[in-house]
Amino acid sequence: MDRSEIQNRVTSVVASVLGIDPAEVLPASNFVFDLGADSLKSVELVAGFEEEFDIDLDEDKAREVQTVEGAVDFIAQYVK
């Protein structure tokens, strides 16, 4: 899976979980400060990424990821 596909799928999950327009989800967007995610939504994002990519993420490390681009980089480590 290439990086652009991961980016598109991450954007889709973020928009769906946070109930926002995908156009608002930019690579540099911070989940909390730019996109309005709270702690519950952060957990839902991790679960959404796991389901979308059929992977098991290290949840503690996943919650440390703060940006969309960071999530793409993090998930890229798990998908082959």
Structure description:
This protein is an all-alpha fold and 80 residues long. The chain is globular, with a radius of gyration of 11 Å. The chain has four helices and no strands. The termini are close together. The longest helix has 16 residues. Helix 1 crosses helix 2 and helix 1 packs across helix 4. The relative contact order is 0.21. Helix content is 57%, strand content 0%. The model has no long low-confidence stretch (mean pLDDT 96). It has a single domain, classed as ACP-like (Non-ribosomal Peptide Synthetase Peptidyl Carrier Protein, Chain A).
What's the structural domain tally? 1
| Number of alpha- plus pi-helical segments | 4
Euclidean distance between termini CA atoms: 6 Å
Q: Supply the helix-strand structural class.
A: mainly alpha
The CATH architecture would be: Orthogonal Bundle
Descriptive key words:
80 residues; Non-ribosomal Peptide Synthetase Peptidyl Carrier Protein, Chain A; 57% helix; globular; mainly alpha
List the helices and strands and how they pair.
Blueprint: H1 3-18, H2 39-53, H3 59-64, H4 68-76
Helix pairs in contact: 1-2, 1-4
Q: Could you give a quick summary of the protein structure above?
A:
The protein is mainly α and 80 residues long.
